[in-house]
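User: For a benchmark we're assembling, each entry needs the component sequences followed by a predicted structure for the full assembly. Here are entry 17's components. Please fill in the structure.
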Amino acid sequence: MAAQNLYEELARQLTAVGTVKRGLARNLPPDCPAGPTAVLHLLRRHGELRMSRLAELLAIDMSVTSRHVAHAAERGWIARAPDPLDKRSRLLRLTPSGERLLAEISRRYVDTLAAALQDWSDEEVGQLNSLLIRLRADFGDCRSRGPLPATRTAPA
Amino acid sequence: MAAQNLYEELARQLTAVGTVKRGLARNLPPDCPAGPTAVLHLLRRHGELRMSRLAELLAIDMSVTSRHVAHAAERGWIARAPDPLDKRSRLLRLTPSGERLLAEISRRYVDTLAAALQDWSDEEVGQLNSLLIRLRADFGDCRSRGPLPATRTAPA
DNA sequence: TATTGTTATACTCTATAACTATA
DNA sequence: TATAGTTATAGAGTATAACAATA
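Assistant: Structure for entry 17:
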């Protein structure tokens, strides 16, 4: 349990990360904004997925996920095959065209970050990754457990 | 200079931070969205500011800053005094009402983060803060120096 | 009746461009 | 002429609610 000013600073820094995200997004192909890009990224990492699982991994509402997927599918980057186990669902996967696009996007991401973070060691980048992963995990747990479970700070 | 997969992971994690930001924003007063909140936060930290300097600190366009400031000023959280040195500018500062609102918002931020990050030590939160600050600084430097300055990776 | 996914609507954040007032 | 700031417009991301098809 950290000091109050550390939390305030963290809240500020988290909102300020948007600057970096916008900087990265500026390098994306004009046809493929950040939302659909994240979809491609997760399909490469996890293989075939259903909408509901993809939305869960993105941590955004399925309605939003549906639009990102539609955007990518209209351009041939994603294929939607019928799910033999449930006719309501479709199984999403990257097409070769989608794989090529994602490779190009990854290359641009890496170039941009490599240029910006010249002075960072592997260990430092890995440390930031680990902390961000843990942040998301703990924050997600907190939300799924409900607001303010009052575990230690006795409310009265 | 870190390995490629570390950069790809960082890009993914940065886009995914939005989940946490949205979680924090859900606890804001309905009248005060995240944009104006950041304005209040920076005015408390830096004291009296001009629009241009505030936009610089927020790292967003002045037109956007202007709208956030107008939102806060309309509700009495910010006062805009004429700048004696330049009649085009106004000096922005928190009002007592704005200070009270920000104190309440900070309290909610801290409560939420304290609940989510129960297992984090002071040092770990501080480490994440430091890395995020450094990330923004290096990324901003990179952008202000122009794209791909080619300092070490000789292009040909 | 419950669940998967889509679509319609609305809100927030941001950038670009046009504009006003002052330097 | 250049700069500080405002406003209009447009684009991206998200959430909620209503809906269709299937379990």
